[in-house]
Model the fold of this input.
Amino acid sequence: MLINYKSITKKYIIPILLTVILTSTISLIVNGIPIFGVPKVSQIKEVSVARDGVVKSITDPEEVVLAHNLIKSLSYTIGEYKDEKLQIKMEFYLEDGSIVEYGASENLVYINGKYYKSKNNRGDRFIKLAEAIFFYKELVSEEYNS
Done:
């Protein structure tokens, strides 16, 4: 019995490929582009988190994992935008001596010197979570003093 590869390709492979491409495209349009190239947690030596001029250095492994996961929660849309003041900026200092920068304002995501439009208010969510995790004491004292 001979296998007809043209028939199999037309009947199964092409529809499957088209479905994968269509599903991926719809997912990117709806959810945005996830941040690729985030260093592995094992490569991160230290994280610097900045908010309104206050910079915190993080070396605790649990907090480094939190910072790593926060960055992975961001997504953006296609196209670069003009720079804007970042509300939260994180610098990842890696074991090999390199530095990787991420940040966000309400509408923008910052990745290594480039600004992109945030998708689905994820920049705003990222800011609120980062403030709650890393700047809790400052937020409480600001609220208490006002």
In short: Residues 34-145 form a domain with the Immunoglobulin-like fold (CATH 2.60.40). The beta strands are 33-34, 44-51, 54-58, 75-81, 88-94, 99-104, 108-111, 114-118. The chain is about 40% helix and 30% strand.
